[in-house]
Amino acid sequence: MPLSPGEHVGPYEVIQPLGSGGHAVVYRVRHRKTGTDHALKLLTHSSAEIRMRLLREGRTQKALAHPNLVAVTEIVEHKKSPGLIMEYVRGPNLAQLIAGGPLPVQQVDSLVRGILAGMAHAHSHGVIHRDLKPTNILIEDGVPRICDFGIAKLLHGDNIEVSKTRTGSALGTPAYMAPEQIRDAHRVDRRADVYSLGAVVYEMLTGQPAYPGEDLLEVFAAIAAGDYVPLRQRAPGTPARMVRAVNQSLVFNPDNRVHTAGMLLEIWTAADHEMTPAPIMLVTQPPPATTVDNTSPPPIAARTIGNREIFVALVAIFVITMLIAFAAGP
After folding, report:
1. I need a labelling partner for 132 at 20 to 30 A (CA). Which of 111, 125, 165, 317 fits?
2. Hey, CA dihedral for 242, 170, 175, 109, is it positive or negative?
3. Domain boundaries, the chain
4. Neighbouring residues of 160: CB distance < 8 A, sequence distance ≥ 6
5. Looking at the whole model, is its pTM more than 0.85?
6. The CATH number of 8-87 is which of 3.10.129.10, 3.90.1200.10, 3.30.200.20, 1.20.120.10?
7. What are the Cα distances from residue 66, in Å, to 222, 259, 266?
8. The predicted structure's pLDDT at residue 268
9. Is residue 297 packed enough to be buried (19+ CB in 10 Å), middle (13-18) or exposed (0-12)?
10. Does the annotation mark 109 as catalytic?
11. pLDDT one-digit tens code per residue, 169-216
């Protein structure tokens, strides 16, 4: 049941609701003794899996101290439902800024440096976010703050240490999800975050998503095709280093993608004159052999297209399965 202004959660008094999602509501609260404002994220559903996810989010963000990450300061309980006390960020989210159209290049440059620095810190501590999108990036006095690590994963080296995602399931927001995350969120690594960051930056510079669509299947098919409108076609004045960073993020095959947010930050901050002119689209296929056997099929292009067609078919099956499950009810 929603909380009303004036209600108490431990030492905190509810001031006003700030927003809600599928399983939680976020409130602005005030500590009754110190008078400081905070954000309270409180569950609206109390299933064991959702409770576990919220607690994992709290522990993850509590362990990550960085100026570009929203800090969780305390884990509380209200009527047997867990909640997170977080820093209160006074400002809009990135989606609200982008709603007005593409952002100036100088503003994008400043914001992206902070976003990448925050995610580089998370990646260096073995944490991948898995749901990076404009609504999960808050802006206060020009400083970006990444929040909502609710479906984050904890890695130990290159191995998954903590994960509650079922094999074969996809978690995240479709327009910003890497292809491998659509197939199976259980197996993704830092490169999935890099893909999402590329999609976010593309939208900041152009005011439009890289992969638009009227429904899930259209979005997934666009991601599989990888044929987004070239960045400079929509934002002609974009510096070469920014084009290069986006192109090397939005690569279908994760093996050919930038591996971490830290590496992406290095590309983003490189001076334009130190970079070779960026191609509009990154070519990831190896060069053809020096000798060609005309009797054999064209191996590289044919196999790449085939893999993507298979991917689209799998995505279609996934979407249909979700619709059937939804129609069937609990």
Report:
1. 317
2. negative
3. 8-87, 94-274
4. 153, 154, 186, 187
5. no
6. 3.30.200.20
7. 35, 21, 18
8. 97
9. exposed
10. no
11. 344 578 898 888 877 767 789 999 999 999 999 999 999 999 887 777
